[in-house]
Amino acid sequence: MEKLDLDPWNPSRELDREEGTRAYLTLSSPESREEYDKTLNYEFLLLDTTKIPEEFESFYNVQKLSEGEETREFYSRFLEFKKDLENTLKNLRITVLFFLSAFSLLTIFALLMALAQKNGFLSSGVELFYRKWGMLCSTGILFSGYTIFRKILNSKKNKVGQNRNH
Questions:
Q1: What are the pLDDT tens digits along the chain (166 aa)?
Q2: Chain center to CA of 13
Q3: Backbone dihedral region of 120: left (phi > 0), alpha (psi from -120 to 50 degrees) or beta?
Q4: Domain locations in the chain?
Q5: How far is Cα 66 from Cα 69, in angstroms, rounded to an integer?
Q6: How far apart (Å, rounded) are the C-alpha atoms in residues 133 and 113?
Q7: Three-class secondary structure assignment of 50-64
């Protein structure tokens, strides 16, 4: 009874308190205890292992049916989450590869421009333009390439999402 007050959010607290009170009143009085003992049938105390009680069997059937639905629902949500996670990781991999390839190409272009400048293959106008606007043009090319790349990825993602919903 003391433990019931420790957990105020227990939904069966009142029922447990009622049952405990009835048990105490029954077992504390010698007369009511004797009447209670007469109702007990000690011959059936051992469980009959050959037959399952009907209440248990019906409860098991109801539980089994509801668990099947819950399991299927949970499993379908898990598969959906797994598919989304796989798509996200695939998009992340593709994005990283895009940036690595873009920076590699820009680095190769910058090295080629430096070699051309050192060997005198560039005219003074091209060299001046490259010094002033080279970094800005490289950034603009990278940004526009990434924008186009993301549009392509998003359109593929939307197509996959629409196919999954239908």
A1: 555 556 666 667 677 778 888 888 888 888 888 888 788 766 554 555 566 667 766 776 666 666 667 777 888 888 899 888 888 898 889 888 888 988 898 889 888 888 888 888 878 888 788 778 888 888 888 888 888 988 888 887 777 667 666 5
A2: 34
A3: left
A4: 79-165
A5: 5
A6: 13
A7: CCCCHHHHHHHHHHH
The Cα–Cα gap between 67 and 129 comes to 71
Task: Give the residue from 154, 158, 137 showing the smallest Cα distance to 94.
Answer: 154
Distance CA(142)–CA(28), nearest Å, equals 86
- Predicted TM-score (pTM) of this structure: 0.48
Helix axes 124-165, 54-118, angle to 10 degrees: 170
**φ/ψ of residue 85, rounded to 5:** -65, -40
Q: How far apart are CA 72 and CA 80, in angstroms?
A: 12
